[in-house]
Amino acid sequence: MRGLFRELSYILGMSLKQIIAPSVLNANFLELGKGLNAIENGGAGLVHLDIMDGHFVPNISFGPGISACIGKGTKLPLDCHLMIENPEKYVGEFAKAGASIISVHAETTNHLDRLLHQIKELGVKPAVAINPATPLESIKWVLDIVDMVLIMSVNPGFGGQSLIPYCLDKIRELRQLKPELDIQIDGGVKLDNILACKEAGANVFVVGSAIFGTADPEATCREFVKKVGG
Ligand code: DX5
Ligand code: ZN
Questions:
Q1: Which atom of ligand 1 is found nearest the CA of 160?
Q2: What average pLDDT does this structure show over 91-106?
Q3: 23-80: pLDDT as tens digits
Q4: Contact 230, 218 (CB under 8 A)
Q5: What is the band of 1 on the pLDDT scale with cuts at 50, 70, 90?
Q6: Residue 3 banded pLDDT, cuts 50, 70, 90
Q7: Phi, psi angles (nearest 5°) of residue 64
Q8: Which of 38, 65, 144, 148 could form a disulfide with 217 if both were Cys (CB 3.0 to 4.6 A apart)?
Q9: How far is CA 150 from CA 22, 72, 93, 139, 192, in A?
C-alpha cells in the first residue's frame, strides 16, 4: 500500500522538491551580482547558466570563465545547460568552474552514455536535454544514468520565447515513465503557465525573462516559488 501511495505521490509530483532555476541569460550583466542576490533572496534553488556556442544554437552567450565568476558570486548551485557542439571537450572546464549539474543535449553527441559517465566521474550531476522535436525514445536508455532530464519547451537559443504546448505532453509521458526523476522544463515558463507545467509533471522550472525582465526580480522569484509550493 505504502509503495502505491509513494508511486502516486511521485506521479502527482507531490513528493519531489519543486525548484525555481532562474536563467541569467537575460539578466543585466552590468549588475549581475545584484541579480544573483535577488534570486537567492527570492528563494531560487539553482542558477541556470545557458551556455551557447553559435553552432548548436544561433546565439553565443558565455563560457567556463564567466560561469566560474558567477559561481563565486552566489551560494546557489550552478545548473549548466550546454547548448554546444562537442560537449565532451568542455565538461571538464565547467566542472572546474564549479558546476553542480551539467546538462548536455542528446543531439550534440554520438556517445551520450559515455559523456554522461564522463560528467559523473567529474563529480558533477549528469543531466540530459532534448529539443522540442526530439522524441523521448532517444534518451530512454540513459534515464537511469541521469539525475535530471531537461525538456526544452522552446527552440533553444534565446530567452523571451513562447512555450511550445506539445512539450507538456512530452513531460507528462516522461513523468509516467519515471515518477521519481527530476524533470526540468526550460523555456517560456511564466507565472500564468507554471502550474500547467507542474501539473504535467515538471518539478524544476527554468525561468529567464519572466524574472529578470521584471522591475523586481527578487519579488518575482518569490512569487514563482510560492506558486509551485517550493
Ligand atoms: C533558451 C534557454 C532558456 C531560456 C529561458 O535556449 O535554454 O533557458 O533562457 O528563458 P525564458 O524563460 O525567457 O524563456
Ligand atoms: Zn536553458
A1: 13
A2: 98
A3: 999 999 999 999 999 999 999 999 999 999 999 999 999 999 999 999 999 999 999 9
A4: no
A5: low
A6: low
A7: -60, -35
A8: 38
A9: 14, 25, 21, 11, 21
For the chain, give the secondary structure using H, E and C. Answer: CHHHHHHHHHHCCCCCCCEEEEEHHHCCHHHHHHHHHHHHHCCCCCEEEEEEECCCCCCECCCHHHHHHHHHCCCCCEEEEEECCCHHHCHHHHHHCCEEEEEEEHHHCCCHHHHHHHHHHCCCEEEEEECCCCCHHHHHHHCCCCCEEEEECCCCCCCCCCCCCHHHHHHHHHHHHCCCCEEEEECCCCCCCHHHHHHHCCCEEEECHHHHCCCCHHHHHHHHHHHHCC
Q: Please give the number of the atom of ligand 1 that sits closest to the Cα of 157.
A: 6
Q: What is the architecture of the domain spanning 2-228? A: Alpha-Beta Barrel (3.20)
Rounded to whole angstroms, how far apart are CA atoms 74 and 28? 16
Give distance in angstroms: CA of 158 to centre of ligand 1: 6
- For residues 198 and 172, give the distance between their C-alpha atoms in angstroms, rounded to a whole number: 10
Report the predicted TM-score, pTM, of the whole model to 2 decimal places. 0.94
Residues with CB under 6 A from ligand 1: 23, 25-26, 48, 50, 81, 154, 156-157, 159-161, 186-189, 206-210
Q: Which residues are known catalytic residues? A: 50, 186
Which residue ranges make up each domain of the chain?
2-228
